[in-house]
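Lecture 7, part 2: worked example. A protein chain together with nicotinamide-adenine-dinucleotide.
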Amino acid sequence: MTARTKPKTLIVIFGATGDLAKRKLFPSIYHLYNKGRLSENFAVVGVARREWTDETLRDTVYQSIKGEIDPNVGDLKDFCKHFFYLPFDVTSKSSYDSLNTILNKLDNDFDIPGNRIFYMAMAPEFFGTIASNLKSEGLTNTKGWSRLVIEKPFGHDYPSANQLNEEIREAFDEDQIYRIDHYLGKEMVQNIEVIRFANAIFEPLWNNRYISNIQITSCETLGVEDRGGYYETSGALRDMVQNHMLQMVSLIAMDPPIRLTPDEIRSEKIKVLRALRPMEPIELDNYFIRGQYGPGEMNGKSVIGYREEEKVDPNSGTETFVAGKLLIDNHRWAGVPFYIRTGKRMSLKSTKIVIQFKELPMNLYFDQQQSTHPNLLIIHIQPDEGITLLLNGKKVGPTGETTPVQLDYSNNSVDSINTPEAYERLLYDCMLGDTTNFAHWDELNLSWNFIDVISNYWEKNHPGDFPNYKAGTMGPKASEELLKKDGFHWWSLFDSDEKYEV
Ligand code: NAD
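Predicted complex, written out as structure tokens:
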């Protein structure tokens, strides 16, 4: 590997004692190291409020990785020696001075040419303060590059996102800002571009002449767990639709970029978001519906409803489920509905995109009183990764009957390797300076403006019927009706345990 693929980097994690650092960041850095993508010239400085020492951090890193270690590769303790800790007050200038002294020393000790990633793994209210102090106290003033990684949520609505953006833009340029959308780090989400732009059989059909509708589902079996306080201020619309779901819509719908560079891809994705038909409050109920889970059963065990969860208002109007119909007003997609749905406490954990093709203009088998199945292309994003193509074949035997034939490609079984964690990829992309799989401000600007109309309408009109779906089902009936009135239904072919009930 060259220096370009093994970047010499210093990573500063703000919020190093937190959950994200422990569960995602430390293991991701270890995997990069283990796979030889990091040279020995790297160091990580964790900062947070607690009075930890280097040893406490190293022990936490060790514990967070121990279970995943490959016994044939090096000593985990050697890896942990690259970690350092500084108790930190984000509002105190002297904290930044101390941090800079450590960073300069580590540059020297590990032969790092001033390349710095500042990873914001703490509450967003501190991002602006941290960014401006990093600049004013000279921490970004090095011979190498400085990059800022920002976790979601990026704002609560357009005005707050814009304010946050203005604060961080005072200290960092747009091309130095890496806004994490961990869906964009997923193997199959990145694979959407390859499926579309490297296969001659799909691209000619990828339009309103051949596609009847597209369905994007991201459902979880988990409830809000211990995040009730956060979720009450967010809800499924802000937590999932504004970012992950709209990112998937734009990747599926974008035109082929003229080159596979971050700028060109982004520019095509932005065109999709610009072409989204804006919602009008007066007809919003025909396009977007919301749900909240009540008590129910999961795997034979009773579970409580959302309103009974910790730190949740017993009369909460927060949605834990959203289904919507999006229309993209451009030449390619005019008339093709994009249906999206996402929710918690549903009957299965699954993220998938189903592309339903139109029927043939003259279906000879239909004329013979036989039903053929519409062709479907299914992109499985998680937990399984792969694609399924559903065709019609002839039933074996003397009959002339047709039968659906399923062609499956699964990443896990074909390559028999674990697919890399999204965070690992994104961190590596950031080290390489590749912004393709991060959200640009222009995308956030458009997506928040689209979402704000819906959230404002919902805030003004408290739902009368919550909870409206039982935990362990596929959401409220209204979600089915959203498609039914267009003559479609959610495809549930590949998840046999889906059930619909209120
Ligand atoms: P957490 O509460 O577990 O950790 C917060 C960290 O920030 C702690 O290290 C804490 O010491 C530090 N901190 C808080 N106030 C501070 C201050 N004034 N000065 C210095 N340090 C301070 O939170 P988390 O779950 O690790 O999440 C961090 C961020 O990542 C949040 O913005 C969250 O929304 C986002 N996020 C988390 C996850 C996840 O899986 N945990 C997933 C997606 C996004």
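The pocket of nicotinamide-adenine-dinucleotide is lined by residues 15-21, 23, 48-50, 88-90, 121-124, 151-152 (CB under 6 Å). The chain has 14 helices and 18 strands. Keep this in mind for problem set question 3.
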